[in-house]
Design brief:
By secondary structure, this protein is α+β, with helices and mostly antiparallel strands. Helices cover 26% and strands 26% of the residues.
Length: 285
């Protein structure tokens, strides 16, 4: 009787419940791991990318520059880029005779602009008198960007942040001069040409080049994105560029049709481009 009473009033066992709970947690963890991208893959980039916006140089040149009130001040004539360090230093502006500024051009440090995250526009918050006193130059006499005198004049007008402190290997070029530039292979044979450059004006980064390759490269006439470090820029500005990326790393599947440019700010496209740039950069080293 005593044994029967003890069995009837024995504390119920919760072991099956704990086992079921643990098994459920394990299943949820496994599911989360299976749906999350591995750490370190290109798909981890979007969080950082959300703070910047890309733009094609071909679409930036000629674009209006406005003040905070939406009034047009001028337009972008060119960009000054450091191709070796993938940086944008200046936007060259033309004011088209606005306020008696004549036909001169003006170099504005990329840091003085305000940027929009949802459209390609540049806002210049500067009063008219300061705009009138900005150091300009004639269209036929572009300045030496590394000249101490010229940099001092920019610094006096815009402040210390305007001074260009080029890195030892800096190679400054006008972005417009790179558009349509011929590209050769390492043997000096024609490989293709630069169709466009993609930049981030908010970060001042020269992101990548878009190339059209010769038919002999068997890339089906598609345009491909290449990191700047996969190109060599000779000291002679008239010389052809040289593609350094291994030919086997150029995959037509990663390209796009000439008449079907993607949205360069589409998150999926940016992930694909970043993965391609990483792969080609690694192979080019």
């Amino acid at each position: 009787m005593h044994d029967t009473f003890q069995r009837a009033h024995r504390r119920p066992s919760y072991r099956p419940l704990w086992i079921a709970t643990l098994l459920g947690l394990a299943a949820l963890t496994a599911q989360a791991q299976s749906t999350s991208p591995p750490s370190g893959t290109p798909t981890n980039r979007p969080a950082a990318q959300a703070t910047s916006r890309d733009a094609r140089v071909s679409q930036l040149i000629g674009k209006d520059v406005r003040n905070p009130q939406g009034e047009k001040l001028g337009e972008i004539n060119d960009l000054i880029v450091d191709v070796n360090n993938e940086l944008i230093h200046y936007a060259i502006l033309s004011f088209g005779g606005f306020m008696g500024l004549g036909d001169k051009l003006f170099a504005y440090p990329i840091t003085v602009f305000r940027h929009s995250m949802d459209r390609d526009e540049l806002v210049l918050d500067i009063d008219k008198e300061r705009l009138r006193r900005a150091p300009g130059f004639e269209r036929k006499h572009w300045p030496d960007w590394t000249s101490p005198d010229y940099n001092s004049s920019l610094e006096r007008h815009f402040g210390p942040g305007a001074r260009l402190n080029p890195k030892p290997n800096a190679h400054l070029l006008r972005a417009s001069q790179l558009m349509g530039k011929n590209v050769d292979d390492s043997n000096g044979k024609n490989a293709g040409e630069v169709r466009d450059l993609v930049v981030s004006m908010s970060t001042g980064q020269l992101r990548y080049a878009v190339l059209e390759f010769d038919r002999s490269w068997n890339l089906n006439d598609r345009l491909l994105t290449l990191p700047m470090k996969s190109l060599r820029f000779p000291a002679d500005p008239k010389a052809d560029l040289v593609v350094l990326a291994p030919r086997e790393q150029l995959d037509a599947k990663q390209g796009f049709e000439k008449k079907q440019w993607p949205d360069v700010n589409d998150p999926n496209y940016r992930r694909q481009v970043d993965a391609t740039l990483d792969r080609i950069s690694t192979a080019t080293r």
